[in-house]
Amino acid sequence: MDSFWGAFSGALGLVIALDPDLMEIIGLSMRVTLTAVFLACLIGLPLGAAVGTFKFPGRALVAVILNALMGLPPVVVGLLVYLVLSASGPLGPLRLLYTQTAMIIAQMVLVTPIVAALTRQVIEDLNREYAEQFASLGVGALDRLTAMLWDARYSLLTVALAGFGRAVAEVGAVIIVGGNINHVTRVMTTTIALETSKGNLQLALALGVILLMIAFAVNAGVMALRASAARAAYA
Amino acid sequence: MRDAAFDTPGSASTLSRSPVVNDPLLDVRSLGFSAGGEKLLHGVDVAIRRGSRTLIMGPNGAGKSLLLRLMHGLLQPLEGAILWQGGRMNASARRAQAMVFQRPVLLRRSVIANLKFALTVRGMRGAKRADKVRSALETAGLSHLARRPARVLSGGEQQRLSLVRALACDPELLFLDEPTANLDPASTAAIEALILDANARGVTIVLVTHDAGQAKRLGEDLVFLQDGTVVETGPVETVLTNPRSEPVRAWRDGRLYLGPNTQSLNNYPGRKN
Hints:
The structure holds two protein chains of two kinds.
Chain A: H1 2-16, H2 20-53, H3 59-69, H4 74-85, H5 100-137, H6 141-151, H7 153-168, H8 172-178, H9 188-198, H10 201-231
Chain B: H1 12-16, E1 26-35, E2 38-48, E3 53-57, H2 64-72, E4 79-84, E5 87-88, H3 91-95, E6 97-100, H4 111-121, H5 126-140, H6 155-168, E7 173-177, H7 185-200, E8 204-208, H8 212-218, E9 221-226, E10 229-235, H9 236-241, H10 246-252
Parallel strand pairs in B: 3-8, 3-9, 6-7, 7-8
Antiparallel strand pairs in B: 1-2, 1-4, 4-5, 9-10
Helix pairs in contact in B: 4-5, 4-6, 5-6, 6-7
């Protein structure tokens, strides 16, 4: 118990002192995660909206596949991305393995189905409400899609938040494709795993606390935004 | 199946095909529609005169809203045809029409953004669109609420916005599906005034209503539906004052019409008169 409190006070000391190593790891984590979530939204939002709006053969199957992919095991994704990016893989010549780009790709593969599947559900519900009015006004396919994405923007923030939660907490895939190289691909989760195995609980705990604080802060921010939007009847 | 009461002279298709209706704007011929193995509309003939105000009336479940949606092209008929100015109903025909729904469907945006969206979809931009928006807001009496989120407006304000949004698209034909069903008398009067004003400017009106008073205030022609088919058509005043078919008589007298071989519910044993 003493060692726990000792580690905890040491962790707080690192956080308060804005330890440079700690800050570097946090910065790298945020850069990788936010880029991956941004790219996943860029693909997942229109994809989910299209599946939720348009009727086409196999639509139900696509929805089932998207839902199933939400539960992709991170280590499997890590392995697949590793095989694709490794020297003998199709993207080997790009030399992306053990880089931040590789970590972004792995996180993007994990997050895109989550964003797409949840977006499909949100837009499908909205489409049920808007479809006849849009048909009556003669709204074209692209305008329908963009109008619904815009009108559902506050609900879709929660979708992006779910993607962020998945990405920022990810360890299995990024450690395989990133290699956990100090100052290069070492992010919060991989550092926690490494430092715990080394017995350096101070840094591991400090990162754990910060990870939790970031998760709380992002959730609180999005919830506040949604609540104010709902009060103004935009959500 | 048509009952004897439906075949009274001058009812149904006979009247809707009367020589008065030359060159109709919208011509519904032998229209049929089924869903889940049930025939919801069958043998419907309706001709909408250009510049007229046509009311579609009938009890709940008669197929009024369904007929409106078919006429507007939101659903495809399984039988029969709907002709626009004698030709096929195509995209340009659809753009010459607009519809106001019973429950206003407003985007999660401000009042002004709702109007702008509809006009942008119709290809209007710049000063012309701004003028249209300003004019629509003034017509609806919503200028002071222009920046307010549309979904916080009262029911009457929402329906007025929905109506002027439809009218801003300059339709030749406006469909309205019970637009005042949930409104107070003042809001109802405001909507009716907007409808009459639009009609005076040449917009053809097709309106579904349950309100006999509104029918007399707004209607010229009346189409009465019962069990998915037209049982009587004619001038509103004539049909409602002197109905020739039993379903219309039952509806006017507030009785539930259960079919040609069934007594109306007002005659059930023990009913207090």
